[in-house]
Amino acid sequence: MSPSPLLQPSFADLGQPLADVTFCVVDLETTGGGDADAITEIGAVKVCGGQLVGEFQTLVNPNAHIPALIAVLTGITDQLVADAPKLPEVLPAFLEFAAGSVLVAHNARFDTGFLRRACERYDYPWPNPAVVDTLALARQVLLRDEVPNAKLGTLAAHFGATTTPNHRALDDAKATVDVLHGLLERIGNLGAHTLPELLEFTRQVSPQRRAKRTMAKDVPSAPGIYQFIAELPGPDGQPRRQVLYVGKSRNLRKRVASYFTAAETRSRIDEMVRIATSVETTVCRTPLEADVLELRLIGAHSPRYNRRSKFPERQLWLKLTDEPYPRLSIVRTAGDGATYLGPFRRKEAAEQAMLAIYDAFRLRQCSARLSTRKASPACALAGMGRCPAPCQFTIGRDEYAELVEDVRACLSRDFRPLVAALRPRLAQLVAAERFEEAGALTERLESFGRAAARHHRLASLAGCAQIVAARRTDDGWEIHVIRHGRLVAAALARPGEVPQQVARDAVTTAEWVAAPSGPAPAAIIEETERIADWLELPGVRLIEIDGDWCWPLGIGPSAGEQLRAASLVGGADGSQPEAEGPDPATSDSAALATA
User: Fold this and answer.
1) What is the rounded distance in angstroms from the CA atom of residue 452 to the CA atom of residue 196?
2) Where is the GIY-YIG domain (predicted)?
């Protein structure tokens, strides 16, 4: 009967608290350090939660001469092991003893190497257990001013071990147990409380990063944001505070501590940690507050080691200009009272949406200023019949104004006329097997639909002077106050507190926000989108709302799907099939908006 295997942690086990992990601390005595040398003694101590579970000790007949130097060092002689069992008899018993545990040794490579070779030699499968090396762990955790070296005797004295190591397997294993417990206490103070966190501490990291782990010492175990700070020379040569990186976490202490372990493998972050001189943290009451504060700090400081959300001002809008013969233009700001669609993250997306409108409506595309009294030269599009040529007065101002109003309605209220105008063209392209052109037209429609959905999702929040909403969590009720799409207050009503009173207090202390002059909310776009994500979560309850949080009927969360369905299955007669999926007016988001 083969012995039970040692612990090979599953994904569920990897999150196991260290207090629940069973460790088998092992030490071997051998005839030497080479592959051809043999084991002379095995000693092991099994512990869990600081309590002794069992001990294992046996001499082993190595079937070889024990060198005099080894005999003097360990006290194990040829005569002492002459009647001891041989390794094939001992190995199954040890594997059975260690089953279900994490293997621990001081300089574990030495001990596990002998055990692995023994399993191979006697046809026992090596169980490949999780291994903790107290030597490597001590080098990661302890500073040179604490201990001169990481020898077992030095560490045992440092941690006040009850057993003095003496080069006998069981005594050395007992001393290693005390060293292990001392090291676990140290890494617990650095935020490592589970088996994977312990294993990460044993991996090699650069000395520069390891030396800075004390920056995590005073970080609270709470949700919030953290900033890595450096004092770097400014233009005048004087040191100036610079924010290198901003992040968020539900457990600040645990997250910050991970930057100083091998768990962090990004090369740019390794460089950032070497430069950083301190870490600043801000505790937040809710995850949404942490999300928003992170975005604001990244936008304010543009930290060199952050990659996302650094340039919130890089947004584009599709504008219907306000001039005698309006046209479409891609602009960076929206706030002069004109009609806008957006924002767009990329210029290509804005251009695709603009082309969709040009495909459906014969709006002029030139950028020239047109006079209402004097004709201008016609462009090539006029000759192709794709422009009504207001420059040549071939269309009256009133008739052109009607065309502009159709475009305005499409941008601000309902894009279904745009789909209806393009469906016959799509049907013709598909019938002619011109699939690339049909695909390009469909892509333009979808780009417009996504932009319309995003635009009205943001505009609906920007138009609300105040929203007070709450959501129940394990910690209590998360409460947020939103004004014109900006988070102005966050609170947490813990069990035993009255959520309504906490909400009233939050409103009283909330930031005042002026109404925006255009379609953009009174916050950076990404902040309002994070707020919308939270508001649309299941279980969110509206406590108070001042304004209309709703979308136009023809534009909703499933706009892209509707457009694609209408585009690809439309008939040549322009009839409108029913789009699959939920109607925007009855979707979860719309239901929440009208609750």
Assistant:
1) 45
2) 221-307
pLDDT tens digit at each of 595 positions of the chain: 444 444 444 434 446 789 899 999 999 999 998 888 999 999 999 999 999 999 999 999 999 999 999 999 999 999 999 999 999 999 999 999 998 899 999 999 999 999 999 999 999 998 889 999 999 888 877 777 688 899 999 999 999 999 999 999 999 999 999 999 999 988 887 667 888 878 876 666 666 676 777 788 788 888 999 999 998 777 777 778 899 999 999 888 888 887 877 666 677 787 888 888 899 999 999 999 999 999 999 988 989 888 876 666 678 888 888 888 888 888 888 877 788 888 888 889 899 888 888 888 888 777 667 656 666 666 656 556 667 666 656 776 778 888 888 888 888 887 778 888 888 888 888 888 888 888 888 888 888 888 888 888 898 899 899 999 999 998 899 999 999 999 999 999 999 899 999 999 999 999 999 988 878 888 888 999 999 999 999 999 999 999 888 877 666 544 445 555 554 444 334 344 333 333 333 333 333 333 3
Outline where 377-520 has alpha helix (H): 380-383, 397-412, 416-431, 435-462, 499-509
Q: What's the distance, CA 177 to chain centroid?
A: 37
Q: Amino acid identity, residue 553?
A: L
What lies within 8 Å, CB to CB, of 595 at 6+ separation is 542
Strand partners, 226: 247, 281
pTM: 0.61
Q: Where in the chain is the domain with CATH 3.30.420.10?
A: 13-200
Residue 443 CB burial class (10 angstroms; 0-12, 13-18, ≥19): middle
Which element (helix H / strand E) includes 65? none
Our answer to whether residue 167 is catalytic in this structure is yes
The neighbouring-strand residues paired with 229 are 243, 278
Give the architecture-level CATH label for domain 13-200: 2-Layer Sandwich (3.30)
CA distance 87 to 294: 60
Rounded Cα distance between 378 and 389, Å, is 6
According to DSSP, the β-strands at 328-331 and 339-344 are: unpaired
Whole-angstrom distance, CA of residue 26 vs CA of residue 496? 50
Catalytic residue among 65, 106, 158, 167: 167
Burial label, 184 (beta-carbon count in 10 A; 0-12, 13-18, 19+): buried
Domain 205-301: top CATH class: alpha beta
Helix intervals (H) in 15-131: 68-74, 78-81, 87-98, 108-121
Q: Which two tokens stand for residue 302?
A: 């543009």
Grouping H, G, I as helix, E, B as strand and the rest as coil, residue 44 is strand
Backbone angles phi, psi at 583, to 5 degrees: -70, 140
* Contact call for residues 167 and 75 (beta carbons, < 8 A): yes
Q: Which segments of the chain belong to CATH 3.40.1440.10?
A: 205-301
Which among 458, 459, 454, 450 is positioned nearest to 562, based on CA atoms?
Answer: 450
Q: What DSSP designation does 67 have?
A: P
Phi, psi of 240 (to 5 degrees): -130, 145
Query: Helix axis angle, 416-431 relative to 435-462, nearest 10°?
Result: 170
10 by Cβ neighbours in 10 Å (0-12 / 13-18 / 19+) ranks as exposed
CA distance 54 to 48: 10
